[in-house]
Amino acid sequence: MRLDPKYFNTFLAVVAVVAALFIAYFTVSSQLDKRSEFKERIVQQDSLQTVTWPLVESSESISIADFSDRFVLLHFWSNWSERSVEAHRQLAKLKREYGGRLTVIAAAVGLRREEALSYASEHGFPFYHVAGSRLFSAFQIPGVPAYLLYAPEGRLEFVLTGSMDEVQFDSLRTIMDGKPK
């Protein structure tokens, strides 16, 4: 089979488009698989609650298990992700709404301690700001932002990677409202 030279450029363009579509499909598919695998793995092992998280504001550390009398929302974020920064505004609103029934731990990913401290001071969100890069890598979390909600008894109730919309915030409220106050 010979290709007529006058159709060669068209042929190359079609091949390039098909190749680009395959690459896009498998990239998206791979990301979805990673997120799904992460959710399954984190629910099964769930050792994040016993790990210590170094606070950005001091030399102390905390763990999710320290807050066994309330819900704990662990939020992996980074300041380069506009979705993460906007999420903090929503999480601060949620924290005000639930007061002492909810603790938010904001785990900074990819930030130096000084950057995270500056961000925490500038915005004054009612969260525990912790260094999260090491554990983000260790637990192979597939991206930021990522959210994990633990019930007062320590059971993982909610996992989301990617941005959270109002429907997901309503899901958090439903989970927290369904538990004894």
UniProtKB/TrEMBL annotation:
InterPro entries to which the protein is assigned, alphabetical: Thioredoxin-like_sf (IPR036249), Thioredoxin_ResA/DsbE_sf (IPR050553)
Top-level division of the source organism's lineage: Bacteria
The keyword Secreted is assigned to this record: no
Regions crossing the membrane: 7-28
One example GO MF annotation: isomerase activity
Keywords: Isomerase, Membrane, Transmembrane, Transmembrane helix
Protein name: Thiol-disulfide isomerase or thioredoxin
